[in-house]
Design brief:
- It is a single chain.
- The chain is built from three helices and two strands; from the N terminus they run E-E-H-H-H.
- The chain is α+β, with helices and mostly antiparallel strands and 72 residues long.
- The protein has one domain.
- A two-stranded antiparallel ribbon has the order 1-2.
- The longest helix has 15 residues.
- The termini are far apart.
């Protein structure tokens, strides 16, 4: 298993940004997006739209955690 943090650049709501996450979180996002028939970028945009003050990386990690805790 690969370890470490990966930084990815994306465009969210017309703005270019970069997100740094552990490889495992990127893998989980890909799985969740595929299950929802969405791109990872679309899923991250939805997470971004619903976040409440936390930074985007934290919001993504919390989303993934909630997703797997709820068995969604």
């Amino acid at each position: 298993m690969r370890k470490g943090i990966a930084k990815r650049s994306l465009v969210i709501a017309g703005h270019r940004t970069s997100v740094s996450l552990e490889i495992e979180f990127w893998s989980a996002l890909k799985e969740i997006a595929a299950a929802k028939s969405q791109s990872v970028a679309a899923l991250i945009a939805a997470i971004d739209a619903g976040r409440r003050g936390e930074n985007l990386s934290s919001a993504i990690r919390l989303f993934v955690l909630r997703h797997y805790r709820q068995g969604s």
